[in-house]
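My current task is to audit a protein record that another person submitted. Please read both lines and tell me whether the tokens look consistent with the sequence. Do not assume that whoever made the record got everything right. I have pasted the whole thing underneath without changing anything:

===
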Amino acid sequence: MSGRFKPAANTYVRPMGRWWRRDPFYVRYMLREATAIFVTLYALDLLIGLFCLWRGEAAYTVWLTAMRSGPAVLFHLIAFVMICYHSYTWFKVMPKTMPPVPIAPGLMLRICLAAVVCVSIATLLLVWRLGR
């Protein structure tokens, strides 16, 4: 084949393999991205539980029974560890990606903790009120 195009033999093809394993930064990045799978699976599990609750007491009881099985407990333990790592890494990445905020870092931490406490108290009050 003649013409203006180069033959395919001279074209560079980057080897696609496990190149990311050579650099610890990429290993941590890939692990953080893999933990998102567990976040998604756990969210889907909670949505299924919510759907079963909507369907009625019998469906919700079946879902609760399934959640008490050995594989489900094991999944939840693994998911807990993965979600904790996922949260930890995103809290480490967030200050590097967000625009500068004219608030002292210690004050920002106290504001975030206060927000978590307020949301937790509101959730507990809501659950207590619904349980009555």
